[in-house]
């Protein structure tokens, strides 16, 4: 069976930058607290009228150009902030990219969405349904945050990242390794937007104030994120016949700098092997891993031949991991 091979990479951040100092002018917090607790100094935020599809299209265009191809056989968009509840956003993204009547659909796994998307793409390619697929992680989290909530407002940023997957040989650079995926719906309320769905709407009562905004139990999420990402990482490595010592770079979901520290400690790995761009972009949810990959290549931190571990944790609860040998050539597009 063919393997799914990473052939292109691109990302996009909205131009507007919001620093910690700007947030401290309207929230009861300090730059020192945000840096020490979250590890963020700034984040990018969409301007009024900019939607998730706008971010996704820009990232996807760069992924296609980096691969040197004009089109892809389909679009998978991982997002928690679709342009509308209905229809899915991916078909519009495919249309704006000029891809024609290709299959296009959204995937909802919150911050694990990109890894779930890679696994789905790998299955579509291995089965012969598609020869290539754009897997995009894009979120405009600023649109679902309570502007008065000092906890969530300082964590999240907006952005998009994309890879082009193509059919290839399982042994070639860029081929995705075995996946480990999991979920725990018993803890769904740890990360949630309570209002706007069928459960709230079917009650025939107006949502409580603030229910349209993102809510998270930070303390409980921290422990679950560390345990699940560490456990999933080890499982994915075991399936690939790899040890932690074989891994050159870990690109984990950029949830929180302290979570990255704790996952590294749990795996017994040097923190220096963990790629991190959270300081300048914050937690970008489904866009987190492809954005970190793109920035790491541009910064020279990730190079051809590196053995890379990808791992994520998000609402649902969901988690997932995989590995690959970084292909390098043509990645990412020069800007």
From TrEMBL:
<comment type="pathway">
    <text>Lipid metabolism; fatty acid biosynthesis.</text>
</comment>
<dbReference type="Pfam" id="PF08541">
    <property type="entry name" value="ACP_syn_III_C"/>
</dbReference>
<feature type="domain" description="Beta-ketoacyl-[acyl-carrier-protein] synthase III N-terminal">
    <location>
        <begin position="105"/>
        <end position="185"/>
    </location>
</feature>
<dbReference type="InterPro" id="IPR004655">
    <property type="entry name" value="FabH"/>
</dbReference>
<dbReference type="GO" id="GO:0006633">
    <property type="term" value="P:fatty acid biosynthetic process"/>
</dbReference>
<dbReference type="Pfam" id="PF08545">
    <property type="entry name" value="ACP_syn_III"/>
</dbReference>
<keyword id="KW-0963">Cytoplasm</keyword>
<comment type="function">
    <text>Catalyzes the condensation reaction of fatty acid synthesis by the addition to an acyl acceptor of two carbons from malonyl-ACP. Catalyzes the first condensation reaction which initiates fatty acid synthesis and may therefore play a role in governing the total rate of fatty acid production. Possesses both acetoacetyl-ACP synthase and acetyl transacylase activities. Its substrate specificity determines the biosynthesis of branched-chain and/or straight-chain of fatty acids.</text>
</comment>
<keyword id="KW-0444">Lipid biosynthesis</keyword>
<feature type="active site">
    <location>
        <position position="253"/>
    </location>
</feature>
<keyword id="KW-0012">Acyltransferase</keyword>
<feature type="domain" description="Beta-ketoacyl-[acyl-carrier-protein] synthase III C-terminal">
    <location>
        <begin position="237"/>
        <end position="326"/>
    </location>
</feature>
<keyword id="KW-0275">Fatty acid biosynthesis</keyword>
<dbReference type="InterPro" id="IPR016039">
    <property type="entry name" value="Thiolase-like"/>
</dbReference>
<feature type="region of interest" description="ACP-binding">
    <location>
        <begin position="254"/>
        <end position="258"/>
    </location>
</feature>
<dbReference type="GO" id="GO:0033818">
    <property type="term" value="F:beta-ketoacyl-acyl-carrier-protein synthase III activity"/>
</dbReference>
<keyword id="KW-0443">Lipid metabolism</keyword>
<keyword id="KW-0276">Fatty acid metabolism</keyword>
<dbReference type="GO" id="GO:0005737">
    <property type="term" value="C:cytoplasm"/>
</dbReference>
<dbReference type="GO" id="GO:0004315">
    <property type="term" value="F:3-oxoacyl-[acyl-carrier-protein] synthase activity"/>
</dbReference>
<feature type="active site">
    <location>
        <position position="111"/>
    </location>
</feature>
<dbReference type="InterPro" id="IPR013747">
    <property type="entry name" value="ACP_syn_III_C"/>
</dbReference>
<feature type="active site">
    <location>
        <position position="283"/>
    </location>
</feature>
<keyword id="KW-0511">Multifunctional enzyme</keyword>
<comment type="similarity">
    <text>Belongs to the thiolase-like superfamily. FabH family.</text>
</comment>
<protein>
    <recommendedName>
        <fullName>Beta-ketoacyl-[acyl-carrier-protein] synthase III</fullName>
        <ecNumber>2.3.1.180</ecNumber>
    </recommendedName>
</protein>
<dbReference type="InterPro" id="IPR013751">
    <property type="entry name" value="ACP_syn_III_N"/>
</dbReference>
<keyword id="KW-0808">Transferase</keyword>
<comment type="subunit">
    <text>Homodimer.</text>
</comment>
<dbReference type="GO" id="GO:0044550">
    <property type="term" value="P:secondary metabolite biosynthetic process"/>
</dbReference>
């Amino acid at each position: 069976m063919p393997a799914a091979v990473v052939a292109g990479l691109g990302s996009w951040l909205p131009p507007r930058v919001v620093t910690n100092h700007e947030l401290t002018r309207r929230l009861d917090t300090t730059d020192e607290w945000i840096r020490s607790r979250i590890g963020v100094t700034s984040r990018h935020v969409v301007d009024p009228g900019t939607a998730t599809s706008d971010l996704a299209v820009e990232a996807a265009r760069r992924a296609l150009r980096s691969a040197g191809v004009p089109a892809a056989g389909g679009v998978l968009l991982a997002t928690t902030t679709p342009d509308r509840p209905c229809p899915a956003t991916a078909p519009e993204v495919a249309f704006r990219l000029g891809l024609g009547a290709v299959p296009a659909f959204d995937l909802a796994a919150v911050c694990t969405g990109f890894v779930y998307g890679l696994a789905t793409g790998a299955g579509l390619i291995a089965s012969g349904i598609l020869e290539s697929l754009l897997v995009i992680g894009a979120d405009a989290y600023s649109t679902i945050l309570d502007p008065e909530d000092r906890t969530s407002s300082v964590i999240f940023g907006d952005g998009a990242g994309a890879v082009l997957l193509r059919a290839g040989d399982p042994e070639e650079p860029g081929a995705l390794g075995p996946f480990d995926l999991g979920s725990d719906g018993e803890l769904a309320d740890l990360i949630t937007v309570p209002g706007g769905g069928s459960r709230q709407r079917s009650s025939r009562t107006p949502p409580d104030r603030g229910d349209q905004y993102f809510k998270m139990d930070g303390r409980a999420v921290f422990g679950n994120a560390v345990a699940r990402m560490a456990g999933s990482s080890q499982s994915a490595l075991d399936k690939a016949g790899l040890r932690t010592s074989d891994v050159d770079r870990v690109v984990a979901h950029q949830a929180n700098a302290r979570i990255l520290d704790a996952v590294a400690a749990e795996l017994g790995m040097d923190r220096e092997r963990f790629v991190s761009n959270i300081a300048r972009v914050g937690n970008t949810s489904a866009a987190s891993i492809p954005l970190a990959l793109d920035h790491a290549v541009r910064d020279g931190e990730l190079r051809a031949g590196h053995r890379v571990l990808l791992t994520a944790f998000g609402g649902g609860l969901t988690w997932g991991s995989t590995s690959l040998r970084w292909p390098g050539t043509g990645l990412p597009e020069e800007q």
